[in-house]
Each structure stands twice: as C-alpha cells, then as structure tokens.
Amino acid sequence: MEVLRVKILAPALALLLAFGPQIAPAQEVRQAEVPLDELVWVARPLVIFATTENDPRFRRQMELLQTRPEELALRDVQIFVDTDPDANGEMRRSLRPRGFMVVLIDKDGRVALRRPEPLRTDELVRFIDRTPLRQDEIRGN
User: What are the φ and ψ backbone dihedral angles of 138, each rounded to 5 degrees?
Assistant: First the structure.
C-alpha cells in the first residue's frame, strides 16, 4: 500500500486550534506529515481540502466540527486539513480534490465519502454508523 501523507499547514492549524478546548483530543491536528497507512484499522481520517484557509466553506466546516466532538472521538475520527494546493502533496495527488472537498477514509483505508460542501457532524456520524466496519464495531466484532 502506498504511504499517503498530508501536510498540515500552520494557518489551518491555527484556525482549528482557535476553537480551543471544544475540540476533543481525537480531533486535534498534528503538525507533521502523517503516513495514513499507520491509521489503517486504527482511525477514520477526515481530510478537509481547501485552496486557502480563508475559504468560507473551510471555515464553516471547522465550525461544524465543533458540535459533538465526543461523537467523532467515539468513532475514531481524526481530522486533517490541507489548504495548500501548490504543495501538491501525496494526499492531494491521490484524492484529487477540486477546490473545497471533505473526504472520509474508513478504517480499512478506502475512501468512504467525498463531499464538495461542508458536512454537519450529525450527518457524518450517521454515515459512519451505517458503514459495515462501524456495524461490526458496534456488535463487538
């Protein structure tokens, strides 16, 4: 499996961290390139792409993620952002976002969801809960 990495940029991180303690630890963004293959069977990466951290959709998505962060943590969601298309990192090349894009990668490493608009936390939680992997987790398998 190819190692995918996402670069977290300081302005996007600052915006995310500006929301303060309302974001649960599982929703913290790491300031490094993260090999997503290390997250297979461990976490559900939620990658938020934008062409700039000033994109209103990006700002709205960060706002929406403040609601029910404990629900995201319960489902092992880890949030990553990429607001620098010029860097053209492996994640951006692999997932090929066009402008703003929200991508959920399931625990098996496959892309489970792509959205070109902000996604409410309750929608994300409902979507995750309907996936076969989450159903197995709920049943204790």
Answer: -65, -40
Bridge partners, residue 117, by sequence: none
Q: Which residue type is seen at 49?
A: F
pLDDT (tens place) for every residue of the chain, 141 residues total: 443 444 444 444 444 445 433 333 445 654 335 777 888 999 999 999 999 999 999 999 999 999 999 999 999 999 999 999 988 887 788 889 999 999 999 999 999 999 999 999 999 999 999 999 999 999 997
Which CATH number is correct for 10-139, 3.40.30.10, 2.40.360.10, 3.40.50.1110, 1.10.340.30?
Answer: 3.40.30.10
The three state secondary structure string of 16-36 is HHCCHHHCCHHHCCCCCCCCH
- DSSP element (H, E) containing 93: helix 90-95
Predicted model pTM: 0.78
Domain ranges of the chain: 10-139
Quote the CA–CA distance of 88 and 33 in Å, as a whole number: 13
